[in-house]
Amino acid sequence: MSRIGRLPVPVPADVTVAIEAPRIEVVGPLGSLRRVLPAAITVTQVGQELRVERPSDASPHRALHGLTRTLVANMVEGVTRGYRRELELVGVGYRAVLQGRDLQLALGYAHPVRLAPPEGIALEVPDPTHIAVVGTDKEQVGQTAARIRRLRPPEPYKGKGILYRGERIRRKAGKSGKVGKK
């Protein structure tokens, strides 16, 4: 039995869950999320918790058991607390500005880069060198943060680029210069 899959998912009082196999919809104070679950896995609501069960111990069912439980738990947490991914801009002249819903970035290119967030995602710019991606869907928050980071990934020589908050960049030594030349 999957250690993660057999754990029940607690459902807070202000969250409602509608299960219509193979779909599940979770509605909470921050919004609603829908997902189509694997057909073989069943999700049932028992009181104030959700239970995820698999039909057999076959390898594909075991693989989907823990995954499905984690996806459902992420949906419940997303509509109650939400998710937040923070990014830092490191480099001279690198800055971010919010124009309406769109994010405008100056990343050392000859032109500013504009990025429109997908539906359900909010971008925050507390100061010009920090960006926060906020939303209810964990997968979409992470994907949007990765799209922003991909615009200027951090490089190992000077450490410039867009980094996740708290990320450490392994630095490399540059060229050693002209040593040993007579």
What is the fold's blueprint, element by element?
Layout: E1 9-10, E2 16-20, E3 23-28, E4 31-36, E5 42-46, E6 49-53, H1 59-80, E7 83-90, E8 95-99, E9 102-106, E10 113-115, E11 121-127, E12 130-135, H2 138-150, E13 161-164
Antiparallel strand pairs: 1-6, 2-3, 3-4, 5-6, 7-12, 7-13, 8-9, 9-10, 11-12
Textual characterization of the structure:
Strand 2 and strand 3 form a beta hairpin. The chain is of the alpha+beta class and 182 residues long. The longest helix is centred in the middle third of the chain and has 22 residues, at 59-80. Strands 11-12-7-13 form a four-stranded antiparallel sheet, with helices on one face. A three-stranded antiparallel sheet has the order 1-6-5, covered by helices on one side. The protein is built from two helices and 13 strands. The chain has two domains: 9-80, Ribosomal protein L6 (Outer Surface Protein A, domain 3, Alpha-Beta Complex); 83-164, Ribosomal protein L6 (Outer Surface Protein A, domain 3, Alpha-Beta Complex).
